[in-house]
Amino acid sequence: MDQLTADSSYPPFFLTSRSHHNPTPKSTSLQPGSTLQVPLLDLQHLDPNLLSQSCQNLGLFRLTNHGVPPGLSARLFALASEILSRPFESKIAEFSDGAVKYFWGTPAVTLSVKEVNWLEGLHVSLGRLASAASESEFGDFRNLAVEYCEHMARISRTLFNTVANDLNLDAEQRAAYLSESNGMFRVYRYPICPNPSGYLGMEAHTDSSVLTILNEDDVGGLQVLHENAWFNVVPVPGTLIVNLGDLMQEDNVLRSSTYRQFTLKEFRAQVQEDITKTGSKVGLKQFKIEKPDLSQ
After folding, report:
1. Do both 176 and 269 map to the same domain?
2. CA–CA separation, 246 and 252 (whole Å)
3. What is the pLDDT of residue 43?
């Protein structure tokens, strides 16, 4: 019996599936050996011009001197790894509802997709995590997640305020973008795949958020589409990767010459509807003045 078959922590689908399928977009070229040079920003000495250039040119940058204690990240990594190594049935039973939910096959919790992503993880709602009911429910993991997400909120606010100054956003506009209670925290594990040519760890996508902050281990695997080609982003110990989400692609969330007016609540509802109907997130294209044809 091989390692994959013997691992009771894997979702059953991962233990039985051997089908071949390659959902890599046909219009792009995958270059496994190509590495993307990512701009490096120092959070303690943040250069507004470099931040603006990084957002406009690539929409991705590496952050150093960010103030997240290495010990905190290590403890959170270790505990999350232990939780995800538990038997599949145990994870389903323990994290089926509440502030922390277990998912597999897609980061869109409880929804099905047309292409199975070869991953599993924990989805944490920060708004629900802050409630008193979750204090005893999730124990050490909750405490570590709360402490870690406080750092993420600090970093997000610092970066966003700098960008907002550059965009001349007023207080009302800034408040419409960021709210810690609407934030989410996810932990991903990518199980061993017997058919790496047949599946993706995660399908090609954009993030629905304003900002996504990624804390990688030393294994890596992040790839970015740039100028119609896929590039590897090599992990650098002690740094964070910051990626601009869909909601940072406009000058204003509610008003735009490119997109019809919409709220954050409407955007998130549309994302869920897209995944339910099509199996993929259509994203901002749904809010363009001319909506995309989903029948093709």
Report:
1. no
2. 12
3. 97
